[in-house]
Amino acid sequence: MESKTKILERLVSKRDKSASDLKSIIHFVKNNNLRYPELVLDCSLQLLSKHSSGLDSEYHLIIEELVNAAIESDFLEVAMKGIKSLSRKFGDKNTKVIKIAGTYRESNGDENNANEYYDYILSENKNDLKVQKRKLALLKTKEDLQPYIEGLNKLLKDNMNDIETWAELGFVYLNNLNWSRALYSYEQVIMLNPSQFYAYIRAAEILYTQGTTDNLYQARNYLCYVIIHDPEITRALWTLFSVCRAIDRTGKADAKNATLLTVCKKRLKLCYEKAKTSTLIDNYNLE
Known about the structure:
The protein is an all-alpha fold. It has helices at 4-13, 19-31, 37-50, 59-72, 76-90, 95-107, 111-124, 129-137, 146-158, 163-175, 179-192, 197-210, 213-229, 234-250, 255-274, 278-282. The chain is flat, with a radius of gyration of 22 Å.
């Protein structure tokens, strides 16, 4: 099966992109929850400057994607122009406009105003999950992260299948060296969506860090799953290589371990040769 990254690369590789090509890229990134803000920003600007007359009903949808990408890329002047356009179309009291304006205020360091925007939306709809998350994200910048962690856990009590929140909780625990809770969080992501390869890699890295033979073998299983589905993820290959060497050092390696080490070496060399950076790996001892 072709990976999401490969599909996106194929879409982007077309030289002379039509309006349809540009829209396909934007929709693909959005529908697959990918983060390529600068790519979306570029495609949106091209659509609006060269093909605006043919966008019809999609015009303001593209404006919305433009604003979100501009905020994430820190092009705040572009974002503000887009917000003004959305306000003229839908009005200042439109929930979507208020939500985007709140995100803009947040990215501009105006947390108090952002909080007011979010409180207004939640007063109208207390179950708006996206706004709950944005309001909670304001706590992430504080020195004491405990309220943020408590907020994430509270959010998960009502939304146990929320992959994004589990992943964020795992990231926070990992940064605070709480290995067991970070591992649990990433394993929740794996159970909810087995195609989230980053979660397998993070879980494997934690298990590798914790050591013990059982943990190393579980880490190896996770990484093998990733590489079976996408053999060009170099981070997974490097981690698998390190895990297999650690298993060797325990004196409890099975026959498969030597085979996997050979596979890792070959795949890594192929990946670096393909990227025309083979000299980087030539200087590294893979033995």
